[in-house]
Structure formats: C-alpha cells, structure tokens
Batch of 4 targets.
Target 1
Amino acid sequence: MSLPTDKNLSALLDERRTFPPSEEFKKQANWNDPAIYERAAKDPEGFWAAQAKSLDWFTPWERVLEWNAPWAKWFVGGKLNVTDNCVDRHVRNGRRNKAAIIWEGEPGDTRVLTFGMLEREVNRFANALKGLGVVKGDRVAIYMGMVPELAIAMLACAKIGAAHSVVFGGFSAEALRERINDAKAKVLITCDGAWRRGTVVALKSAVDEALKGTPTIENVVVVQRIGKAAQISMEPLRDHWWHELVAGASAECAPEHMDAEDMLFILYTSGTTGKPKGVVHTTAGYLLGASTTHRYVFDIKEDDVYWCTADIGWVTGHSYIVYGPLANGTTTVMYEGTPDFPDRGRFWEIIDKYGVNIFYTAPTAIRTFMRWGEDWPAKYKLSSLRLIGTVGEPINPEAWMWYHENIGHKRCPIVDTWWQTETGGIMISPLPGITATKPGSATRPLPGIAAEVVDLEGKPVGPGGGGYLVLTKPWPSMLRTVYGDPERYVQNYWSRYPGIYFTGDGCKMDEDGYLWLLGRVDDVMNVSGHRISTYEVESALVDHVSVAEAAVIGKTHEIKGQGISAFVTLKEGIAATDALKDELKNHVAMKIGSIAKPDDIFFSAELPKTRSAKIMRRLLRDIAEGRVLGDTTTLADPTVVAKLKDQYKDEG
C-alpha cells in the first residue's frame, strides 16, 4: 500500500476556477449558515442530536453516542421504525395524496404511487411476509429489477424488523447464492424478469440456479414484471406470485418498535477478489445520515421532484432513491432502463416529462453524454432543473464543466459528492448556498464529519499535500460491522491507523483546504519506482479535445515494473489514427510528465461498464495481462469486453 503521487498534481487540479454560491441560492438554501461548520466541529454529538429531532421516535434516546473504537452505538436506548418515518408519518401529516414514487419502465409504462398508496402496498406485503413466517431479526434477500416492488419490499422488511439484503439484479447466480448463504436469508424476493435494452433479463432463471445450494431459503416471492415472455417455472410450495400473496393481505400493519442499533440491512460490497463483505447498517444512525444529507446536500424543497439514476442494488440507490428521499417526504423518480434506450435522449426526456428539479448521476455517465454531444440534451426542456449532482467516482474538471454548461446551463449548482457503501451517506460535498465549488473537487467534509488527508505514518499532510483520506471521528450512518465477521471489520477499516477509519482512497488537499479524490489507492501504478494515479492519467487524456472518455490500468512490465495501458473512447466524428495515439501520449507527458506517458493506447467505441455506469477496470487488467476474464454479469453490455479482448490481442 503506497501513497498516490503528489508530483505535478497541479497540472490536474485547476484551482483557479472557483464558482461561488449564487446570490439566489444564498437566499433560498435550507442550510445556509456558514457557521454551521464551526458549531458542528465544536459539538458533533450536539449537532447530530439536533438533526435527529427531525425523525419520529417511539422512545427517546438516553445517550447520543457510545464510542469504544472501532465500535459505535448511536442514540442509545432510542426506539423508532424506518418505514414509519419514510411512509406512515407523511400519511399522518397531510402528504397522503403527494406522489412518493414516480416510476418509468423501460418500455414506457409508468406508475405513480402516492404516500397513501405506498403505505397500503407496504403494509400488504409486510403482512404477506409475516404469513410466510418472517419475524423480527430474520434476513430477506431481494434480487430484482428496478420496479416499485423493490422499494416496497425493502420498506416492508423494515416495517416488521426483518433485515433485507438487496443483491444487484445484474449479479450471476453464483454471486447471488454466495450472498444468500452468507446472510442465511429465509426468503428471497425476485421478478420473473426485467427489461434491459429491449430484451428480457432472466432473473427467475438465475434464482432457480442459485437456489440449488441455499439451504436456508424457505420461500420465494416472484413479481410478475415480464409475463409470458419470461418463460419461467414456479416450484410448488416454495414459489409464490407477489400479486396472489398481497391480494388477501390486510392493508393495516403496525410498525415494529426497533432499537436504534437494530440491524436495518446488509449490503455486500462488490469486491473484485475474495469473499464479498456484508456491510451492516443499523436503524437510527443510517436513517439519520441518509435523510440529513439528502435534505441539505440537495437543498430539498417541499415540491421537488428528485431523481437519482443509480440502481437500488447499490448503496446509492438505498440511500438516495429510497430511504433519504422518502424520509424527507420527497417525490423520488425510479427508472428501469439505461440512458441510451430507445435512444440517447432517454434521461433528458424523463427530466422534461416529470419536471425533475434535482438530477444525481455518475461521472462515467456524464462523460458518455459528452461523447454523444450537446445536441441530445438540447432537444428537451431542462429548465425545471435547479441543482445537479455527481456520485460514484471522482469527476474530471472537463466533465464537470460540460455538465455545468450543457445540463445546468451555468445556473444550477453542482454537488460533487464522496461517500462509500460503508459510510452509508454523503461525507464530502459542497452545500448549495454556502460552499464555493471547484470543478473536480468534492470540496470539504459536511458539518459533523471529521476527515483528514494523512501520510504513511497517519500524520495530517495539510494544505498542498497528498495522501490517504481518513475519517477521524465516528458518524451516525457508519457501518457497524461486517456481517458474521467482526475481525474482518477491524482489519479492513481500522487496523491501518487505530481508532481512525481508513477509506482506501487517495486524496489531494489544495491550498484552500479543498479535497480532490484520486480514486482507490490500489488504482495507483508503480512505474519505474514512481507512484502514478490512474486518475491522473485518465484526466490528462480526457483533457485532450478529441477524447470523450478514458480508462487507464497498469500492466506488468519486465523493466519498469508496470507500464501504462490506456483505453480511449473518442468523441464522435474523430478518426482513430496512429498519429492521434502519438499525440495523446505526448499530451499526457506534457500535462503530467514523461514518466506518465502511456506505453499503449487502444481506441474503443465503448468501455466495459456496469449498469450503474462504472468502468470495470478489473476486466481491462484481465485483458491486458492475458488472464481469464472474471465475472462479467454486472456489465451493461457483456459484448464490449469480448470485442476489447480481441482488439487487444490483435494490436498488443
């Protein structure tokens, strides 16, 4: 484990471009007192206790925090229910007829669930789960496409005190089996299939394969999404249709009184090697983190229509499609499909159609939009947007500026957010109306969050330095353990610097104290003894006028240790030539230094991405090293990696 290089990072970070908060946002922001940072730093427990009063409690807490590093208990003695806070209280408080979920299916079918409708559907399914023998403390696995029943199932589990474990619908049968067995899930909820670019994803078939080795599963509930086209089989006694179970279920269900520290869900990280880690989040702290950050980072107003484009199979969807927005009584959009089906205007069409006010998407998606050109968003009315955000990985300044100019039309603030599955909620982000933004920087830790950039010995590097990002104090939405493996929790997150959470991310702090995330420290290449961040080289490539997107990996080199291979997608209309390869190599050398000059550049029309738009660099490394490809089931288009493999073999 080594520090990311700090050499020539000034070439990457254009610190002169600073965007102060607009006067309009200063006037209307919900959390617009700059002194809040200082107050939260002086009394973090008092700060979080004040925020916790936004939730409804059955029993008030006795102590805000018990901290015996690395073990935390927040709001000790308090009792509440997540679903009561996300659904029931809004029905009680006059939002019964307000839209809770707006759902858009890939084929164009739509559904709108008001909070009153959502309450009835959640209660019916909660009672159906009880009828299948699910009780407080049981684990329920969920393996579904992006349909409203996914959110309903999560909320139903939370209502009766069962912990859910959502498994991304793109994972293989083997990956599903592994997660079910680790959690010892009692019930599995799935769909007959899902739509993906006009074709059926066979979810139930994957379930049938997975369940050949899952002794704890007693019942399977199947949502009928596709119908006859799915061509599935139903095993008698084990498999049940969702619509048949809820048809006879009561629409009344009292919420279970949950202890603040009771487990809410397990979410397995998508690690590329070894056994996935079951990250455990608990009831009160997680809900507080998700709801508070959603409300303030996105400056939520009562009538906002909010859309996070993530898949609920990842933590982003948990926190910022389901729990955060619904806890705040916000209308949240769910979309089943991809941004390019049936054409490249689908995202902008949805924003136009529903009058979306806040749009939260991934930097990789933004770079894809850049490649498609500004003509696509220009076809639609995006005037409803007042704030846009990014999530998932560091965004390069060029993509930030394109987003600002072509989607935000230079009037929408951008919130560039950093957080992890383990943190449960956003940790570093600008606050609209308070924080000046810089293209490519997540800016500064949120109030109540203590973050530092440290060197190898764990000492703060201070402004102008680079190192590891760490969190030095506990926070409410932090993970509590790795399910069934507390030693792994300590070893992975707390052993590097005792009592300090090690994020595994490299980070640069500029002279103003702003934080620039550089990606995972395992995405640092060792070239002739020099540590070079893949993000640095990728950003330098995308800085070139011809490049839309780039992914960089380190490849074994007999002399240098590692050489640099770059996979580059060009903007439309740009010809892929050997001369352009040389030009790009020299461009990187000019921006960073000759040591960072790529050995190989491969042009590709597409890069291998997950359905949540993250580039799978692991597969690129497999290609470059000639290894057997790892699991490709999470890819949005599995054919991309096969084409790249053939191309690399021919050109490499």
Target 2
Amino acid sequence: MPTDTISQVNSGTSADRMMSVSGDNRSGCLGHFAAADVVGVCLGDRSGNLVKANDEMLRILGYSPEGFASGHLCWHNLTPLEYWYLDELALSETKVAGRCVPYEKALLRKGGGSVPVMVGHSLASKDAVDIVTFVLDLSEVKRTESEREKLLAQAQSAQAQVAQIERMRDEFLATLSHELRTPLSPILGWSKLLQKGQLSEEKTAIALNAIEKNAQHQSQLVDDLLDSAHILFGKVSLRKAPMDLSQAVTAAVDAIYPAANAKEIAITTEISPCMVLGDAARLQQIVRELLANAVKFTPRSGNISVTLTPAASSVRLLIADTGKGIGADFLPYAFDHFRQEDCSTSRQFGGLGLGLATVRQLVKMHDGQIFAESKGEDAGTRLVVDFPLLDIGHDASATKSKTTLANTAASTETIAEASVEASTEESEQSQCSVLLVDDDDDSLEITSFALEQAGVNVISVNSGAAALEALKVQVPALLISDVGMPEMDGYMLIRKIRQLPAEEGGKVVAIALTAYASEYDSERCIDAGFQRHLSKPIDPDVLVQVVSELVGL
C-alpha cells in the first residue's frame, strides 16, 4: 500500500498502517479513496481521539501534519458545544452498528472560525478498535444555498413591491377617476337644466355658481396633478433669491384663512423674520399645502398653530393641528406619491394624495428636510420643515443669483414694453382689434364672446394657416393663440409671425392661451416669441384684464 495515502502525522508511519486494521481488500480501496482527497478522512479511537488525517481533512481544519500530530485532538476539541450531543449519538451508534447515519455539524478551525461539514463514522473493520471518519466540506454548498435564499428573498420582495405598486396604481386611478368625475356631475347636470330654460332666476344663479365652483375645483385638481408630475420627473426649476421666509408664511396663512374660518378653526401664529435662499412662489406653495392639509384634517372648531423660528444654522417651520392624526403604520409613508391612509370608497376626506409628496420634493429642492409627527388617531399632527438659514454677509453667490434674476426680469419687462410700444401705432390703427386663434370651436366662441363684451374687435380663426392669411388683411393690436393645434401649432405660428416685417405684424404683442399649463410650457411659449402665457381654463375677467394691461381697452 502506498505510503502517502494518508498525511503522515507521526514519524515513520503512513496510511498503510492506518488502513491495515481491516486486513482485506477493503482497506486498499479506502487508502486510495483517502489519498484522492475527495473528502476529509481521519482515523480515531472509540473515545473520539484523532490520530491521523489526510490532506483534505487537514485543509478543512487548518492544521499542518505536525500541528495535527502534536495537538492531542479529539472531536470535543474541534466541535462547537452545541454539536457535542450529535457526536455522542453518532459514536454510540457506530460502536453498536459499525457505522452511523451521516449528519451535519460544524468543525472549529485552527486560528478561529468554523466550517460547516457533513460527517460519517465507520469502524475500520468489524472487530477494529479504530473508527474511520469521513468529512465533507459544505462551505460551498451552504454559500450556494445562502445565495439562492437571498435571491429568492429578493425575488419575493420584488414581486411584493410590484404587487404593491400595481395596487397603488389601481387605487390612485380609481381615486383620480372619482375626484375628476365628481365635479363633472353638477356641471353637466346644471348645464342640461339651463339649456331647457325652465329654471327660475334664483335656481339659475345657484346653477351658475355650482358650475363655476366645480369647474374651478376640477381645474385645481388638474393643476395639482401636472405640478406633481413635473416635480417628480425633475422638470421644475427654481428661481432662488435671498428672501424673508416670514413673508411667504404670512401670505400662505392669509390665503388659507377663509377655508379655516369656514370650519371655525382658530389659527395662531408665532412668526419671526428668517432669511433663506429660495423661490418665493414655491416656498409659499409649500406652506400653503401644509396649511391646507391641516385645515382639511382638522375638525370644526379645532386649532392650528404656525411657528417660524431661526436657529444657529437653520430655520424651522412647525405647523401643528388638533386633527385626525396619522397612524403609526402609515406615518413612514405620509410623504409618498399617490399614497393615502384611507383609499376606501367610504373615506371621509377627498383628494389625490399628492400634496405632501409635492411638498417633500420642493423642500428637498431647497436643501431642506421635512418630517411628520403624530401620536396616532385623533391625536393631531405636527409637520416640521427645516431650511438652511441664509448668512447674507457671506453668501455672495446668492446675491449674484439675485442680481442675475433681477436683470433677467428687467430684460423681460423691457422686451414686453418695447413690444407694446412698437405695437401702439398699430393698435390705434386697428382700433384695439384682437386676432384669436383656436382649433376648438367652443373655446373660440367663449373667448371671443368675453372679449367682445369688453368692447374688443375680435377676428376669430381656427388654424395657424388662417391666422397668417388674416394678418395679410389686417395687423391686429394683439394676437391670442392656442398652442395645441393640428398641422401648425402655436409655436410654429408665432415663429413664422416673428419672421415677418413689423408692418406685416412681425412685432405684434402675443398671448399663448393654452391647456398646456406647466412652468416648462410657459417658458417654452416665451422662448418661442409670446409675451405672455395664460393657462386654460381662464376666468374671462382675468383675460380681459391681461389684454387691457398689454394693449389698453
């Protein structure tokens, strides 16, 4: 039998001596198997003391042949305490049956750490006093199992997230449908009754008021949805400048006061001057949204407190109410898009669940932080917003930004004034005529009627091509054009007009009146050549006022 079958641990001994206890062909096969180092093989006595080991066994344990030989090792030395009972059972079974059922355990490595293994014991022969132990390293198997379990857990988590997203999508679409259709019902209902001409003067006034109120509500829903979408996808740019945040907070409180007063909700304020670098309109929007949320969830005769205080390096806005509160389960998701604590058909409070999500994005864009606190149902809510405090003396970049923005604003005003001056003579010649362009007949009719009621001479056309033909006949004082039109949209129309000589209408003052209502759309209209951007639906009185400002009536 070859002498290198089992790693030598005593001088002058080898695997032939280890395996010779059987005295038959089986020992030779065992010796070759041990030498192959497929699994760890070691020889020990019935008390669990280890005598010899092959190279694979030494690798598993981290011993050198010499270290193994001098270690006086036994299974207890190499086994964590929690596995001792398994060794005792296996050795007892081996003594009785000649072998044991393989079992899993761990072996302690020299120098620290452990190795997961599969162990099997067998008597070297029927009458032998030595026990041969086979040890299979399960490290790779366990690693693979762990990775598989991790991947399985990730897959299950991803599946759960997809299911949650789908559920949230369905809930949001259902809510969106409900919120948009609800104001349509009184609009359509009263419109039908008005068309029949059978309403009394009193009922007619009620009908018109209901139509106006619900149309404004639906318009606000659309604005909120578009604003949230643009903020979510990073399509909103801020016009930052040094400002006193207390002014935005005070303006927001004034704006929300009528709604609070209608529910007899008392608003108390403690507002200190606090300089920040921010977009005044967006900061006011943040406060207004938070206050509207507080009013919405605070019952009649409740209380809302607004506190704005400066600290060493930050500004803290705190809005606390005595309202519904937020449940502990929902609190971590209060600022998520399209998430509402109650999405059931029996919910008490309406809305799309976009307000707080929009606020969080705007706060982040101002380098601030926002969080909510609530002790639960009917315990009220505290909304806390922190902004960086502006150090005016050391913020040269902010001053520069402010100057640049001021210059830009001045330039815009100069351009508008120049356009108005350039068109003054044309306005007088055209007797304050307006060229109105819209492919939607209903929009064209109502806008034309509103302007004519204000004494404006209106030329109405339903396409960009027709508008260019109308300019050849008469140059108006003002152009009002839709943007979304077939064949030639509003952008194409105004660019073609700006290429014309002044006497042919090239410098006519132009307003974009369109349902494309985002800040991005407004900037695009101005860049294309319009002086103003107005979003549909627009109050006829507001439209007449803007026209009067630009060309005079």
Target 3
Amino acid sequence: MAGYRYLIFTLLFIIASCAQVGQITGGGADTYAPKPVEENVSPASGSKNFNGSHIKIPFNEFFKLKNPSVNIVMIPPHANINASFKGKTLLLDWDDSLRENTTYAIYLNGAIQDLNESNDSIIQYFFSTGDVLDTLSYRIQVKDAWTNEPVSKATVVLYDVFTKELRSFASTGPKGYAEMRCLRNGEYAMSVFKDLNADMEYQPNEPIAFSSNERITLLKSRVDSIPYRLYTPLLEPKITTKRFIGPNSYIIAANRPLLKTAFTINDELIPEDKVIYHTNDSVQLFWNTAGVTRAEITVQNATFNDTLSLRYSEKTTNAPLLFSSKNRSNTYAPTDTICFVLNDLITSIDTSLIKIQTLTDSTYLKDYVVLLDKNTVCFLFDKKELSRLVFEFSPNAVTSTRDSIGLEEFIITLNPDRKYGVINLKLNGYKSPVILQTIKGGKLFMETPIASPPESFRLQELAPGQYTFVIIEDSNGNGKWDVGDYETRKQPEALDVFSTPTTIRANWEVVLELIPSK
C-alpha cells in the first residue's frame, strides 16, 4: 500500500518554478522552488478513508508563505484552510467537517516560495473521505486566438453543472496545457480565463476562452484535442482619444467604428466635407476655431451618445500652416500618387503658382492633373522615365480656411520598378472572404480585404526586407477580425499565422503558397 501511495503522490504533485534575476554572488542563483519530501508527507497524497483535519508536508528547504488565505484552496470548497509552518514543514488544518465519500484536492497555487529567490510552486494534494479515490482526468490546451501561441498562466476552473460547486481548477503551463485530476464521472461546466485579479471568478474585462458546448461529459479520462482560443472581449464602447491639432482640427478615436456618426462642435453640426476618416474608428474634424479656446464635441451613432470637452490655448489656434508630402520620406513607388497634405482644409488652388521641374534635364512638366480632397492635393501624370522632381509652390498657391501657404519646395524621388520585389501568393485553399495582413519588421505593413480569394494574388512594389503574413477568415465580411462572444458561444474568427519570414530582394519575384491550417 505504501508503494501505491508513493506512485499516486508522484503523479499528482505538480511543481513549477520561475527564476528571478539576482545580483552576482559567489555561487549560482537558486532557480528551483522548494519541493515536498514525498515519503514524509502525512497523510500521503492519494490517501483513502481520510477522517482527519491536519496535513503535514515537509519540504527540502526553508520557505516562506505567500498570501496563503488566497493561494491555498480546498476543492470542493467545504473547508477554510489554516496554514502555518514549523522549520521546513508546512502545516495545514481546518475546523470544518468534510463530506463523506468525497474526493478532495488542496491546491497550493504559488503559496510556497523559497527565502531568497522567491521561486514558487504549484502543488496539488489529493485524498478521499471514502474508500474510493476519483481518478478521472481532463486535459486541455489554451492558445491565444490571435497569435495561435500557447498561453501560460491561464486559469481553468471546473464546476458541477447542476450544483455549480467548484470541482477542480488548474493553471496552464508554458506550453498552454492544464490538467484537472481526481474527477468523478458526470457533467461539468468549465471556465477558461486569465484571472487578472486572482479571485477565481471570471470578470468581463478578463481574456476568456470557451468551447462550443456548454457542458463537458466525463465518462473516462479525456484529452481535448481542440485548443481553447483565448481572446480579450470587446470593452464597453469608449472614446479613446480626443485631441486638438492647431489651427483648426480635432482627432477623435474610439474602440468602435465611427462610421455614420453625427459630430457637433459647440452645437454646430460638422458636415461630411469637413470630416476625414483616417481609419473606420479614427476621424479628424475641421472647424473654424478663431476666437474659441473650448470645444464641446458630441458623438452620436448607434453605439455612442457621448459629449467630450476640450480646452486649448489661443496660441494653439494660431498655429502656422504646415504643408508636407504625404509620403514623409519624399520617395514614391511607380504606382504611388504624389500627394501633399495641409494641416487645415484647402479652399482653393492656383495651379499657375505651382511648378514641377525634372532634375535630369531641368524641364518643366506641363501635362498633369490636380485633384483636391479636403486637406490633400494630388498630382496625376505619366511618371515613366522620371526619377527626381522638384515641386515648387509659390506663396498663395494653396489657400486654406485661415490663410495661404508661403513658399514651399519639395524634392521628390521616383523609384523605378527594379528597386522593388514582388510576392506572388497562391491562395488556392481559401474560398470565402479573407483579410490578408502583410507584416514587415513585426509591424502591420498592409491590410487587404479579399472578398473572393483568387488562385494567385500579387503583392507588388515591396521594399527589400522580410515579410510574414496573417490571413483572417472574414466570416461576416466586415473587413476586420472579430473576437468571440461568450453569451452567444460565438468563437473568434479563425486565422492563420504564417510566421516564417519571406525575404524580398530588389527586382525579385517570389512565389509563395499560403495553405490553410484546416
């Protein structure tokens, strides 16, 4: 019998440690958490017909207790545990009576730390008050819904589906796995979440994962082969940014789309021709601020009915006009449109005061078209055989609601095709709408909604470098990745992360097949 108990103890104690960075000393840092001396634990883990109220767990080194009233838990929660220690031995006891013929687990969830490095342990101790020890187990893996990487330190809580009583819990390890043991057969409900406030209960702001089935039926030990996908729920609708930019504009951003929104400033409705959408959740409003240093901005749509207040100085409202190339590097690819942006709405352009000169032969371009859109002016012309241009805007060439620009000059470089590479993406496996995200240097470089994925999709004029990709299955066709909805059991939209970099060189074309994961 002693050998049997030793085997149970070895299987059921789970030790995890994390090293902290310490000062350099004469010896190596202690990177291991205190470990129980298994053969001296009394009563042994896995004991049956347990009728006591005391447990002694000796450790291999001196330790300290970390928040034992929170980090030491009995499940089912039929008793409040008192924790103390004497020397290297942890002493646990309780005053409450336990139920008959019940398997109990005591979790030491980071409660035991060593004295110097604060490495801690996750320990599970089991016993039964009857002559049967429940032996079923349930194992799952938790992955991040966006990156598809394993999630560590996610909390997995198992409840009795009928009584709602807590039956087991575990914390995921470095590879995202969590296993709940000593379960009896029956039906359970489960919560998987990041317990940010350590209260063992899911809160609306905490990342969560769930399966499509609300109930888990255990008739034998089970390993769930489908990972649980953890995501951060949408927060309550909120305006995230409100900022004044002199002389005449306001930036408003939110955590929800701002399309089809009515904006007013000091009770004046802002017409559409004075609203610029930088993204669907970020807008710039233009309004004449002459003599005004305070704005009440209302935001009204199906989601928002908010009023924002902004104060600013008169000096800011008198900020100078700034005219700049839309591409701040002043370098354009062959198919780019050359545009210039003003920090105010443009009211008129006098093309007779604009000169475009080629630097190769000092001639002037005559055949071009000028397009004006709110605060942006663009130039269309045949760029073949051109390499460097000088755009000269004489004073009063561009007039805004406040003033006219002074003399402005920009040297623009037009790169030839051979400066760029091409990726020919094979998308044969995707049949429904997707969103293609092209990543360069760890940052989003380009996002392309594709309603009907073709067999081949060309990404052209790519600067040399390394690129990776994400393909989002845009199931509702709204052009963005949607997180899950716990209430309706709707899972986050599926995506594939292609993290192996593809190297692009100038004047190269690479053929790359992106194969769906399922």
Target 4
Amino acid sequence: MDNTDDTYLRSCLKKFFGFDTFIGNQKAIIRSLLYGKDTFVLMPTGSGKSLCYQLPALISEGTAIVVSPLIALMKNQVDHMCSFVLEEGIASFLNSTLNRAEAQQVKDNVLQGKTKMLYVAPEALANEDNLAFLRKVKISFYAIDEAHCISEWGHDFRPEYRKIRSSVNLLGSAPIIALTATATPKVQHDIQRNLDMLHAAVFRSSFNRPNLFYEVRPKVDAAKEIVRYAKQREGQSGIVYCLTRKEVESLSELLCLNGVRSLPYHAGLSPATRSTNQDKFLMEEADVMVATIAFGMGIDKPDVRFVIHYDMPKSLEGYYQETGRAGRDGHEGRCIAFYSPKDMHRLEKLTCTKASATEQEISRQLLAEVSAYAESTLCRRKLLLSYFGEDYNEEKCDNCDNCTNPSSAVEGQEYVRLLLSTVCAVRESVRDDHVVSIIRGEATVHVRASNHHELDVFGQGQDKDKRFWSSVVKQSLLHKLAKKDVEPYGQLQLTEKGRAFLAQPHSISLASSRDFSHCTGDDEISGGGGKWHSGGYDRELFTMLKNVLVSESRRCKLKPFVMFQDTSLQDMAILYPTTIEELQSCHGVGAGKAQKFGKPFVELVAKYVKERGIERSQDMVVKSAPHKSANKVFIIHSIDRKIDMEDIASAKKLRLDDVLLEIEAIVSSGTKLNIDYYIERQVEEDKLADMLEYFATEAQSDSVQEALAALGSSYTETEVRLARIKFLSENGN
C-alpha cells in the first residue's frame, strides 16, 4: 500500500500512537517527508512536532537519523517512543553514556534493521568511526530536532550544528526534515541556508498559545513573590528559570524551607542527579523545578501550570520556548517574568565577555528586544507573534497583564512622522538604535561617522527619552508602517503603508512604556533583602501596629525607628505574623529584634486575626533561609578583630560605601556591632556627640539626608552614617 495514502497513515497513527486524527499540519508534513522532499517545520512547543518524524520513521524502509542536542533529550525521546512500540530497539541513541558493549548492541540492532530511529548528537554525527558505521546503514531520512541551534541568532546556538550538512554530504543523499518550536524569519532563513534546503517545503504553525497568560513584574522581592505564588498553588507543577547555578540552589532551598516540593537542575550537578531530579519532576514527586536553561528542552510534561522567569532570558526566542512548557495540555498556564534593567546590563556583560565582535552585536540586539518586550504596555501576545513574523489581528487578547490592566494612550501622529522621516533621511540603512540616537540628538561615534548629526531631523525628538522612542519604533513595526530587514538584520525600512502615512499623515494612538527604573535587580533570595513593595497592606492593622510601636518606644525610651521601621510594620500588615519565628520573615526583622521587641506586635496580630475572622493563610508567610553572605560573615569577624574598614573593603575588592551598606544591613536586622575603634580615628569626639544627641532627641527617622540638613554642612555623609550605625547598634540591638 502507498505509505502516503490517507487511510494507511491514519491506521498507522492509531496503531503506533493511539490517536484517531492528526492535528494541525502533521499529516501534510508527514506526506511531504514521505514524498522525499526536504521539509522545514516551525511548530510551537506542545503541538506534536516529534510525531512528524517519528511516524514516517516507523513506516519507512531503513533507519532515520535524528540529530538532537542534549543527552537528556535523547533519553526522554527514546523512552517515550519505546512506551508506544513494543519491539525492542525500535528507537535507540548513540552517545557518550553508553559503554562499549552497549554501543555495539545499538549498532547491531541498526544493521539488523530493528532500529527505525537512531538519535545522535551533532558531534557524534561528525565522528569518523560513526561516519564509517553509518555508511553501512540505509538511511531513510535525517531529522534535525531543535534546529534553531544552527543559527547564531537562535537562543541555543551550537556551533556543532552548523557542521551537520557536511556530515550528511559524506553519508549520502536522503531527505532532511528540520524542526524547531521557535524561529524568527531571520533564524528560519539561517537554518535553511546552512542545511542547503532553501527550496524545502515550509510548514509554519501559529505561534499563538491562547491558554497562556503572559505577565511581566518589576523585580522587587521576587524570591518572596515566587514562594508565595508556589505555596498558593500547592500540588501544581511549575518551572522557575534562573540565570546562575547559585540562584537555582538558593531559590530551590528557599522553596523547600517554605514547604514547597522543589528540586534544582543545572549543569553543575552530576548527570545522575540531573536525571533523578528530572524523573522526580515528571513523576510528580516534586512540584517545582528551579533550573537554568539547561532544563526543559524536549521535556514532555503536559500539566505544567506555571513558568516563572526569576531572570529574563537572553532572547525572546528563549523566552517563548521556555514559557511554551506551560499548559501543553491546553489548560491554563501562567507565564510570569521578573524584569529589571540592571539585570539586563548584567546579562549583556556576561554574554559579551568572551564573544567575538559579531556575537556581541547579535547578543545586544537580542537583549534589546527582550527589554522592549518587558517595558512595553502593548498586548504581549501581539508583540510575541509579531516578533515571529505572525499577525495577531485582535485589538487585544485579554490574557496578558497589559490587556487586563491597560495603560493610557497618547496621540502619536507627529512622533511616528518624525521616526519615518528619519528612516528615509538615512536611506533605510541603519538599525533602530541608530535612528533613535539621531532623533534624540545624540552624536554617538556611529552617528558622527555617518555625518547623520548634520541631518535636519537630528535632535528634533530630544524632549523624549530613549525608552519612549524605542516604544514608537516597536509600535510602528506592529502597525506595519516599518519593518526590519532580514539580511542584514535590524535595518529599519519603510513599508508601502509607511510611505502612504508619510505622504498623508493621520491620527494614530500610541501606548506609553512601563517604567522599571525603580527595580534594582538586587533581590535577596534568602528572604532578607530589599524593602517590600508588593501590593497593598492592611492599613487598619498598620495603624494599630504603629500605635503599639509608639507606646513601646516610650516604654523602652527609644526612638520608634530604632525598634522597627515603617517597612517592617507594612510587612507585618501583609504577612500577619503570629509567632516570633514568623515575625523574622518581615523586612528588617532579624532574630535579635524579633526576640527583643516582637512580643507585643505578634500578640496584637494574633488578636486582630482572631477577632476579624481572617483566614490567615500560611502561604503568605515566607520563611527566610539563613543568610550565607560570605562578605557579611567576613565583615563581622573583621570588625571583631578591629580591622580598618578600608582594609576590609580592599580584601573583598569592595568600595568603602559597599562595606558601610553591608554593616547597615547587619545592624538594621538586629545584630550588634562595635565599630568604636574605627569611629575614634575618623570622627571628632564633639561631632560624634552632636550626631548621637541628634538621633537620640531630634530625629524623627533614621534618614541620613534629614540628619545632614539638621546638623549643617560641617558634617559629612560618611560621618553621619557611622554615627547612625553606632546609635542603632547600641540602642536597638
């Protein structure tokens, strides 16, 4: 029977996989491959991409060579395939995890015709011994999985992937099917050109995942928010992505400390540990996997209910790929990303440290797209789909934070006209950041080298900041007034619609951008970090706590701010701590302060909760992991040994200001430090007495700026900070 016949294909689908019908483009893709055509498949995560090469492999003569980037992914795919088909060895992998006898058994199965799918890494495909073996094999076709790894513009670029075509040429001709869940038009072109399949049949499925809710939050107390979010969804599966191994370990530990079944996953763990943790997550022995991007490629868990990015990824492709692991069963999936511009600068430094000039430029452009997405107030679904070359024609999706909480809009006719005029003035030959520099009147090296500072449009939009003009660029792209050229990538060009707009400008509404300048990015995963800014607090309880603070401060003959600051009381009015241990979860409340001053506060909260029948969810109380800052331990020990602050700073390669910040944090949380030995050498005795007197009698808060205003110009900020440290340590700790 013709293996492309519809009836035959449906019967094979039922026989091998138990499905009655194909979904989306699956049948057309399979028939294209069976007809012997090179085939390019762009299909979002969870849409049945693997079946597009698995079914043809099962019904074709010979063995399909499946190129896959990760050992864990190969194992997952082979295990998955063997669960459908009873024949032993129907799918196998050939990689470094096999010993000599196991590798020989795999080869024997292939030569005997038992194996229909052989998974190999691109490095293994180029190996001389493997090439010699594969020349003996009848190859039905080559499947290049995760094909975006070929492109330098892709989010998981693997140089070995660019050598696949050379290996295929050495092995002999057979159809190629390249598959990926994420590819911009630029990446798609790069993949097809590298694999020499520019004339391939192309199948692009929609990138729209209507069941996913997209949200970007300011990165302030992100660790606390993640813990609370996970606790409120006990029993639900989720993935949290972090940039570094240290963050993965710390956040997973914090989640476990708060009763969330969590496991870490990163490249620093042994292969056995990674495999065990992955299996536990898949078998629901753990609810939350905290991971670097080493986790997730090809993970087939349909009921992941949330994907959280503690750190933003390096590209929108990476973001889409990772968020795509939520809601693969078609039910609700929430995708939350924590964003800070400072984090993006850190990411740029990390990615550009050892890269070539070209790689650095690519990285900067990809990161700029991520920042533009995060800071935009436009529909996130519309932004994502536009990035991948797909139109979303609805005005809004009502399933992202920007649609459910829309921002104000402004009339944008003049702004768009200026942007498009500038693009024309530079003859559509430069990227968007260059255009923005011209509009804002920034005579950068590139602007001056091109003499673009002499253009009439130079500086005409200097009254608006860079973020505003970047938003105008993004919205002009969405309105199809401009486009970015694929080759070379990034050059802004006008569309016919844009030229018509310039000829006859008309009213156009533009959304404003979000301001993330308050985000430091310095979140404290231990739970003892920056001020609590999340949501509202119980204002009635806050007022009552404030009254207790005033009363207790009079009883103890201390200034209120010496005991607890307003941010600590606000946290109490959010968390409702009823024990001394829970009180330590609040900002600025260490064990010492909780023990010394906490009793009347937790008693008030307990009474308040009981009288008002408040269902105090333990989900809202985040326990803090012991702070493990090596700097803080070093500083405390150094102060005990009376070492100068400058020497402490030098030993840790810190500024003196950084050391003082650490000391202030230590003292504020309730630890007593004696820095008299240092103050005696730095501050005149009478000035110190005046400052201590100010904090004891006049001060209404511990503000350094208020102290400087009251004390006069003869006092320096450093002197005031040292005096405040001494005062708080002696009186409050």
